[in-house]
């Protein structure tokens, strides 16, 4: 295995010159830079990144902690983050907190011990309720979940607005009894619940909220149990996330119910399967790629300028109307 001294000897320069070329720092002539890079390629030299980080006290690793990696929303956001990190020559350490505050704490401690340059986090409701940036030894950007008064860089959807527009769409379709299945332990679910409540209040109608754990299986079971308590079907059912929406669809099919003939259904997240159901589903589409790119750009800016003012980027969801909310 070639060493940095071998590269220096092959290129006819000092070890310090090789170090400056590889780090992209300091003054090096163009001819010397070209000889060093040619020698690196000829000798198949790979720098010892761990040793470099130890010497400099810096790291090229970013942390990403999501609440549920099974959720396609986080898959898309993670992909966008990794794309930017790769283009910048950085690595991403991905962890799944599984909506568990203890697991979340474990991974945050691990990020500290790994001395990551910064972390992008989708926090649990418990952490968000007592969030203080000074509790963390690294720069931090919140994604998907953040309250308006949270003192942290964040990239979020305008959840109240999106849920309100979705509910108003159903009201315009003549729906009057609209059930809303939402993640009870999620800041996102609570914010979307607020938008739904606002739309129904404006129409003089009573909300029908159904708090659940935000997983597909829990949503399926919750819907079946809830239907057993109802004397009549609601006009519409809304899901606060894509995983919940999938569970509701499974529950409706299990009961032999059709949409929109028996009940209108709509929700959040424009996942591929929502377009191929029959009829296809009305959803709020989130700009996941933009959310991921914005989150990592915020983090890199915070790493470069730790004392800059906090920034909160709020994005707008797109209402996509399909057959599930258009009764014949």
Give a description of the structure:
Helix 5 (72-87) links the parallel strand 1 (61-66) and strand 2. The longest helix is centred in the C-terminal third of the chain and has 17 residues, at 288-304. A 6-stranded parallel beta sheet has the order 2-1-3-4-5-11, with helices on both faces. The chain has 12 helices and 12 strands. Helix 8 packs parallel to helix 9 (187-202). It has helices at residues 4-11, 15-23, 30-43, 49-56, 72-87, 101-113, 125-129, 159-172, 187-202, 216-228, 242-254, 288-304, and strands at residues 61-66, 91-96, 118-121, 140-143, 153-157, 178-183, 208-212, 236-239, 264-268, 282-285, 312-315, 318-320. It is of the alpha/beta class and 328 residues long. It folds into 3 domains: 4-47, lambda repressor-like DNA-binding domains (434 Repressor (Amino-terminal Domain)), CATH 1.10.260.40; 61-157 and 288-315, Response regulator (Rossmann fold), CATH 3.40.50.2300; 159-286 and 319-325, Response regulator (Rossmann fold, 3-Layer(aba) Sandwich). It is elongated, with a radius of gyration of 25 Å.
